[in-house]
Specification:
Blueprint lengths: L2 H9 L16 H8 L8 H9 L3 H18 L4 E3 L17 E4 L2 E3 L5 E5 L4 E6 L1 H5 L18 H14 L4 E4 L13 H10 L1 H18 L10 E4 L13 H23 L2 E5 L8 H7 L3 E3 L9 H8 L4 E6 L1 H6 L2 H15 L5 E5 L9 H14 L5
Parallel strand pairs: 1-6, 6-7, 7-8, 8-9, 9-10, 10-11
Antiparallel strand pairs: 2-3, 3-4, 4-5
Amino acid sequence: MNSNQRVHAALKGEIPDRVPIGEFAVDFDTVEKLLGHETYLRAKAKSQIAFWERRYDEVEQSYIADHIAMHEKLDLDILVFAMATWWIPEPTDDVPPRRIDATTWKDKYERVYKYSDATGDVTVVEDPVTAARVFTVEEFLRAPEERRMNAASMRVLRAVTDRFKGKKFIAGPNAGETGVVLLGDMTRGLMELLTNPDTVRAAAESAYRDATLNDKNFIQPDHDGIIWGQDWAFKTGPFFNPIMFREIFMPWIRRHVESIHKDYGKRVIKHACGNNWKLLDMFVEIGYDCYQSIQPTADMDIAEVKKQYGRKIALWGGVPVEEMVGGTAEQVRQSVRRAMKFAKPGGGFILGTSHSIAVGSKYDNFMAMLDEHAKLASYRQ
């Protein structure tokens, strides 16, 4: 079996020749250690600043060359087009945000952006435009507009895809995840869910209609699946009442997954950090092919998830990301051994971290995970 065949077998709940291995993302600091030079690949803040400074071609070239080089060096079975690996915005004459200090920017709308050392990202921390906005049902009843992928982004997708199609399992983009719609920031969004549920329901349907109209312009025919990356839970449980999830969001999510299966023949993998125990039955009902980002520090023990759901949905995880960042190589090896002991039997399992090879991960820990997997992965031992 090659990597592509191996992952397809695991997603069908079958036993491949060996346990596949993959990551939702490998962040830039690890990529730089692998390749020996700086990169924009998964360098979210660095990429954003480069876009503000109109250095589109520079980022595009790095996304292509470094993504290919990384996967030629790593024996990963899955190639993911995650954030900061493929999307190049259209050039614009709009005034970019002005720098306030070493870690802060402000745009012409008075939005404030901050750099985070922990995530290597630049995010909006103050948004007076959205804060002042009043959301109504009517604005979400308009017909969606057709969107198309721009040429630069398509060049990135095609160059990397052409190198690995049919060899690795490729999880590419679609026109957008149908998930939980939070109108405004997290706090505002959860309050709108409580006080303005009809508008949230209309927004959820609108997101579904937009995505299903435009999937044809984003889903690539030679990709194998997509990964949706919205988190729905804290360490202690979901952000919202599961009943609200079932009634407001789940019907649209299920329809979108059905469309991707039926109309495009692609697998749908759900990345979801946090404690998702109260949502897992609904993950199965929705029809997700795989649950990724199984977080043991949120009481999502891989052994127990496998025991309860291993025959209902493929599982991808096993090694806590916290160990990759703050643990030892031996702790990582122990986690690989435990995952193989409890999640490998019967198939339907992909080894990986509980999130990604995140910023700050120790290179030696990543190498230890790959090495221990190689020792234990075979189903023919």
